[in-house]
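Appendix B, record 7
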Amino acid sequence: MRSARSRAVGRAVALGAAVLVTALTAPPALAAPPALAAPAVRPGCLPPPTVTEPTLPWAQRQLAPQRVWPVTRGAGVVVAVVDTGVDARTPQLAGAHVLPGADVVSDGPADDDCYGHGTFVGGIIAAQPVAGSGFAGIAPDATLLPIRVTVPGPDGDAGRVTAASLAAGIRRAVDEGARVINVSASTSIPDAGLAAAVAHAAARDVVVVASAANGARTGDPVTYPASYPTVIAVGAVDAEGGRADFSQTGPYLSLVGPGSDVVSIGPGGPGHWQGSGTSYAAPFVAGTAALVRAYRPDLRADQVKHRLETTATHPAVPLPDPALGWGTVNPVDAVTAVLPEEGTGREAAVVAPPVRAPEPVAPSWGPLTALLSVLAAAGTAAVVVLLVRLGPAARRRRWAPPRRVEIRGPAPADGGAGGPADDGGVPERPAGIRAG
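Structure tokens (predicted):
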């Protein structure tokens, strides 16, 4: 288990597939069974978040998905969130952005979320940009399909998962038309039903993305569904690009994504939470898969997986690396790159360049010095003539020399000093819940 590194008041301890989410006066989570990693668990609903992140969070700044939004925003791609549900009332998911979905345990809809974990995950995938906030999802025009898989525990909480509920959730997501499935929960027990559900998704050409879990300090147990070969298994990195200390390692790891102190939305309100865990790294990859599937609908699920791995920002180590997989997901290259096997028949998409503040350019004095030498004599004579002719008029108009005008360049692209782009954090906010 892991302590939070946020600047929030109070601390929370990691559970399973994801860790800390900070929010206003949120209750602590209950323990999950040792074999299962669960989303956020607690009787009673969380209060809505009210603190808004105004600047561009570090994860969005580093991945820069907005550079490919002129080409694709994920429209037409249904992404299933197999989790605690997704709150369709949250402003950044408003409108027809969230389907009713399904609760595979109670057989109802799943477009509400009492506990917040699924909404946080869904926001990273597809939250829409809104005025006054720098946060938005990776694929803001994708459609979310919430699939609730949490079951009541012995203490009355409703945030536990079983291998059977995960399997049912994946199957239901496939049958409801998902093209990408995000699973931010895991089990360390191999299960034939879960393996069959993942095989069903592969047979139906559906991309499955799963968090690798947070057991790096407890022996890195193999987790499922992440370790199945057709699944994109995702670990977590911090703002400096290093593996998050809780992120599990193993030969099955495909990619890593931002997973330390990342920002997303919560249920019932316009504000934001901050969280850490591989649960929150996975949706960065799922959102990127949605961008690719929207722009390249011709690609099969296995080709999407290959493209994400090939275009990742590779670490300077032999690949795949057990700690970082093929590297950090790269939305821009995942969408735009022409892979070697694609030949020369396809041109790379043209995307917006990175936004940077202008840099000062040193003047070249050689040509200017020569020009001034040529004009010096003539200029002196001309000034004398102008003063003789214009002097009286200037005196009548009370002429004065011009004031100095300071020329200001555009503001820095990160929104100024002290924001998340500088230190990877967010403004201080109250203590929160522990999420699995």
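Remarks on this record: The chain has a mean pLDDT of 77. Residues 365-396 form the longest helix (32 residues).
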